Amino acid sequence: MEDRIVGINLIIDGVSYPLSVPASEEPYYRQAARLINDTLIPYNKAFSEQGSQKVLTMVAIDIAYRLVSKTDNTGTAQTMRKIAELSRLIDDTLQE
Question: Cβ(36)–Cβ(63) under 8 Å?
């Protein structure tokens, strides 16, 4: 049975990101948005004068490190693909 696609709207750092995701993965996307927002708080304070790209890069490094340090070799390739995808989304958004 195919997973239906649902439209969701994630708010990250006060910016709305509409996405279409498989319904079964929606909770993971929402949890990811919460994790990003929670991680943004200290980096926004520490790097506020240095621009949003530096803040988002530090958040990506922080989250990626936590993920990689807790993951053994199984699933690492998939995790790295997801990190690369998130990095591309951040870069694309910053360029808009």
Answer: yes
Give the Cα-Cα-Cα angle 59, 32, 84 (nearest 5 degrees): 60
Average pLDDT over residues 89-94: 78
User: In terms of Cα–Cα distance, which of 81, 30, 36 is closest to 59?
Assistant: 36
**Could you give the CA distance from residue 52 to residue 44 in angstroms, rounded to a whole number?**
8
% of the chain exceeding 90 in pLDDT: 47
For residue 7, the SS3 value is: strand
Number of domains in the chain: 1
Burial state string for 26-62 with b = 16 or more CB within 10 A and e = fewer than 16: eeebeebbeebeebbeebeeebeeeebeebbbbbbeb
Give the tokens for residue 10.
């994630």
Helix, strand, or coil (residue 73): coil
User: Per the confidence metrics, is the pTM higher than 0.85?
Assistant: no
DSSP character at residue 49 = G
